[in-house]
Amino acid sequence: MKALIQRVSGAEVSVGGEIVGKTGKGLLVFFCVVKGDTGRDLDYLVRRD
């Protein structure tokens, strides 16, 4: 399980060269969960410094 939070002035997502989503200024959150991750993993992730 991994998470990345980043301030952005803007961001967009493209698939096959076509923009399918975009946003202006704000927070961009990447969050990845894989089979086998548990609630304990999530607790660790949200409580770390």
Describe this structure in words.
- The chain is an alpha+beta fold and 49 residues long.
- It has one domain (2-47).
- Helix content is 18%, strand content 51%.
- The chain contains one helix and four strands, in the order ββββα.
- The chain has one helix at 39-47, and strands spanning 2-8, 11-15, 18-23, 26-32.
- The strands form two sheets. A two-stranded antiparallel sheet has the order 1-4. Strands 2-3 form a two-stranded antiparallel sheet.
- 0% of the residues are buried.
- The mean pLDDT is 93.
Number of DSSP strand runs: 4
In the residues, how many domains can be counted? 1
| Computed Rg | 14 Å
Within the largest sheet, what's the order of strands? Answer: 1-4
Entry keywords:
single chain; 49 residues; alpha+beta; two-stranded antiparallel ribbon; 4 strands; 51% strand; flat
Q: Brief description of this entry?
A:
The protein is an alpha+beta fold. It has one helix at 39-47; strands at residues 2-8, 11-15, 18-23, 26-32.
Topology of helices and strands:
Elements: E1 2-8, E2 11-15, E3 18-23, E4 26-32, H1 39-47
Antiparallel strand pairs: 1-4, 2-3
